[in-house]
Amino acid sequence: MADPTPQLRMGFTRFDRLASPQPALGYSLRTFRPGDEEDWLALLRTEPQWAWDRARLDWMLNGGRGVMPPNGIFFATCDDRPVAAACTFLYPDATPPAGELGWVITHPDHRRCGLALQVCRAVLGYIRDQGYTYAFLKTEDFRVPAIKMYLQIGFEPEMVHSSHPAWWAALYQSLAKGAHAPDAPHQ
User: Fold this and answer.
1) Rounded distance between C-alpha atoms, residue 135 and residue 90, angstroms
2) What average pLDDT does range 55-81 have in this prediction?
3) Domain 8-162 sits in which CATH superfamily?
4) pTM: predicted TM-score of the whole model, two decimal places
5) Taking the domains of the chain in order of start, what are their residue ranges?
6) Is the model's pLDDT at 164 over the cut of 80?
7) Signed CA dihedral, 65, 184, 52, 38: sign only
8) Which of 4, 27, 65, 144 would disulfide-bridge 181, Cβ 3.0–4.6 Å?
């Protein structure tokens, strides 16, 4: 049985060109506060492909995957309720030391307001302010609107699997033609 194809990976080094976050009218931007856990879980659960429960979130908040500083978790809010989110993982012992942009999500009722872009900019600004010069993210091939946004921010594809160059070439070709995304990478 073949190993599953790994997630797409994108790297970021353009911190000198990073725009400051500016949420749309009617929205605010803030960091995580104790008590936000249930609202964040509800938000994460709006992505049908993701499986989230309180135990997983608590594990992550307690450093199970990597250093996840609470002030590196950003929410776009409407009436102080989180409607978009992105978080930071820090890997100071990696080569090179890296920050990871993770779990970017916007509630379906608040999409197309640029909120994901703003929380991503906030996370990248946080990573930069911690002294990092490299960040990365991992994503799924079906998240084409998110991938387009990551490219707009300045992320670049990193080829971590033999199928990825062909998938990225097909994506760029489809974007140039205004067509739909390519099929998922296959081994």
Assistant:
1) 9
2) 94
3) Gcn5-related N-acetyltransferase (GNAT) (3.40.630.30)
4) 0.89
5) 8-162
6) yes
7) positive
8) 144
